[in-house]
Structures are given as C-alpha cells and as structure tokens.
TrEMBL record:
It holds the Pfam family DUF676. The keyword Aminoacyl-tRNA synthetase does not apply. This is Similar to Protein SERAC1 acc. no. Q2TBM9. The keyword Endoplasmic reticulum applies. Its main location: endoplasmic reticulum. It comes from the Eukaryota. InterPro entries: AB_hydrolase_fold (IPR029058), DUF676_lipase-like (IPR007751), SERAC1 (IPR052374). GO terms for cellular component: endoplasmic reticulum; membrane; mitochondrion. It comes from Pyronema omphalodes (strain CBS 100304) (Pyronema confluens). Belongs to the putative lipase ROG1 family. Residues 93-287 form the DUF676 domain. It is found in: Endoplasmic reticulum; Membrane; Mitochondrion. Keywords: Endoplasmic reticulum, Membrane, Mitochondrion.
Length: 380
C-alpha cells in the first residue's frame, strides 16, 4: 500500500473525478478544501494498492487534468493535511503522530486510515486534520527539537484556521511523542498573543500511549550497548527517558494551565517487538504509570502494542469504538459550547468570558431557560 497527498486540486474537481482518473477505489480517497474558504483549492489523499502506481503519479510531468495545472504530489505529509471538511464545520480534530511516525501511516492498518475512512462518517460538522513533522530518529541531519516541533504545530494551526475559525474548538488526538508536542504547544500558546487563540480553543486531548513521565525503553537505548551501534538521534531519546526533567516541566505546567481540559488516556498492554532476532528486546514501550495522567480523565487499557494502539482495520473493532467514544464525547461537548456561545451572544448575557469557562454542560444547566426561550423563537 502507498498513499499520496495532492494539494492544489481545483475546486471543480469531484471525488468521482479523482477515483475515475486515478483508477483508485472510492473508499480510499479523500477530497477536502485546503482551508475553510469555499473558493480555496482542495487537498486529496489517495491510497493505492501498488507502490509503483503512486511513484509514477509523483514523478509524472503530465498529471491528469482533474488535478489542475500545477498540483503538488507528495507522500511525506508534513504539516497539516485536511482529511475531511465541510462549510458547516464547528469543531476541529487534529491528530499528531509520535516518534518515527508519519501523519498518515501512523494511523493506518492495511488500507484503512480511520481518521479518513471511519471518523468523518460518524462525526458531522467536524473538520479532521492530521499533522506531520520530522520525528525520524534515524535522520542524523535533523536538529529540530521538541520545543521547535511544538512551535511549528502552533504556527500551522494559526495559519490554517485564520481569523474566521480562530475561536473554533480544537480536540487533539495524539500518539506517543505527539502528546508531548501537543502539551508543550498548548503551554507555549498561552505566552504569545498570536497563538493565545489556540490555547483558548483547546477543548480536549485523547492521548494514545504518550510517555508523560518518559520511557524505560528510551533509557535502555541511550545508555545500553545499542547506543554504540545505532546511528540514531539520541537527543530525542534522551528527552524521552524516564523521569526526564524536560518532560516533568512540560507536564507540571500543562496540569497547572489546563486543569479543566477534557482528557482521556489509553495505554498499551502488549509488548512491542523491537528486534526480529533477539526476543529479549521485546517490551512495553510506555508503561501504564507513564501513559496515564493521575487525576486527569478516564484511563483505558488497549490490548495492543505501542505501534498498533493507534491503528484500526475496522470501525467495528472494540478498541476503535473505545477511542471513538471518547472523541465523540468531546466533540459533542464542544458543539454544545459553540451553540451556547451563539445563544448567549444573542441574549447579551453578562460576563460571557467567565461563563464559557464553565463548559457546555454547566452552561446549559445554568442558562437552560434562556437557551430554551431563544431556540423556541421562530426563525425569520
């Protein structure tokens, strides 16, 4: 399997056009506007069963007419990629992969990428995006640090959301290191007026095997015999060691700043095979004690290894349903807050900013009568 991203697709092109022209399966194609403006170009993702087919499309100098004159075709998926969107979107979901991850492949099992193939059919009025960054530990030329990953994510979100969507609620879905990047990004967002809107818009985070307090596996690779033979970016591994000072500082600040943020954590319960030869290298990458945030949200075990905890082949799998239910719960709560904002603004209720901090459920409880009265007024 191989998936490519095509940006700059004309607004007149339909999903049917893509499927027919590229000879792809319709259930392995997505087509969404690059941003919320209806006249913007579109972004497509296409999964091919043959890697050679994808490679030919990337290399061709004469792309199919439906892709426009100058489409950009890549398989790196760096930055933000919109997987699903509509003009009526009320909530943003942003998925962030982890160490050695990929913005598309991390979430893919077989030819099924659940953020693209399952979630959009279950959640309406929700824009779904995936974010990619170079977390490849084998890339010795890269010097990008975790704080720089976080700043780049903030910049991408601010640019993508623009002025129109700057108050739209955001829910993050994070795997492994992606959770650390998101926590640090939210910490940094509060300190800059240009990114404060991201901090204010954050409504929930779903953590999948995030090493909040580090990983013993990172310790073993850095200080063990493997360090002598593996040409890896040890700076990233050092930052992820158990009881890392950097991780503790990020976590403490996050807990203080986002005490009321909706959080759900999932942790792996199967060992990950790190070597095809030596079984002694098999281990749980992120232990439960590190993957869960004490006193913050529900914690769920998943009978999968570190790589498989974020990959689902079917929307009928129990593990997928468990993750989906937490995302759906957060989306529903965020939409209530959006609706309440509209009603309260129309009613000119006082102390609006303070009221929003209560969250959707409490807001409805306190202002239910006003809400009902407003919603019962005939539309003109």
């Amino acid at each position: 399997m191989a998936t490519i991203r095509i940006t700059g697709v004309p607004t007149t092109t339909t999903k049917h056009d893509l499927t027919k022209s590229l000879r792809a399966r319709s259930d392995c194609v997505s087509l969404s506007h690059h941003d919320s403006h209806p006249t913007s170009s579109q972004t497509a993702t296409v999964t091919f069963t043959s890697r050679s087919t994808a490679a030919r499309l990337k290399a061709t100098k004469r792309p199919p007419r439906c892709l426009g004159r100058r489409p950009s075709v890549d398989s790196d998926f760096l930055g933000l990629t919109v997987l699903s969107s509509s003009p009526d979107d009320e909530v943003d979901i942003v998925a962030v992969h982890g160490l050695n991850g990929h913005a598309f492949d991390t979430w893919t099992a077989g030819d099924r990428m659940w953020l693209r193939d399952f979630l959009p059919h279950q959640l309406t009025r929700t824009r779904i995006m995936t974010y990619g960054y170079n977390s490849n530990v084998w890339d010795k030329l890269s010097t990008t640090t975790i704080p720089e990953f976080a700043l780049a994510l903030l910049s991408a979100l601010v640019n993508k959301r623009g002025t129109k969507d700057k108050k739209r609620p955001i829910i993050f879905v994070c795997h492994s290191l992606g959770g650390i990047v998101v926590k640090l990004a939210l910490n940094l967002a509060r300190k800059d007026k240009h990114t404060a809107c991201i901090a204010a818009s954050a409504r929930g985070v779903v953590f999948l095997a995030t090493p909040h307090r580090g990983s013993d596996t990172a310790n073993n690779i850095v200080v063990g015999t493997l360090a002598k033979v593996l040409a890896v970016r040890q700076d990233l591994l050092i930052a992820l060691r158990m009881d890392s000072r950097q991780l503790n500082e990020i976590d403490n600040e996050f807990r203080t700043n986002y005490e009321n943020l909706d959080i759900a954590t999932f942790y792996e319960t199967k060992k990950t095979k790190l070597s095809r030869v030596v079984n002694s290298f098999d281990r749980v990458i992120v232990e439960r004690s590190s993957a869960t945030l004490q006193g913050k949200g529900p914690h769920f075990p998943i009978e999968r290894d570190h790589r498989g905890i974020c990959k689902f082949l079917s929307s009928h799998e129990d593990d997928y349903k468990a993750v989906y239910m937490q995302i759906a719960r957060m989306v529903k709560k965020a939409k209530v807050t959006v609706a309440a904002r509209v009603v309260l603004k129309a009613l000119h209720l006082p102390q609006l900013g303070e009221i929003f901090k209560l969250g959707g459920k409490e807001m409805v409880k306190r202002y239910g009568e006003a809400w009902t009265a407003e919603m019962s007024v005939p539309q003109r």
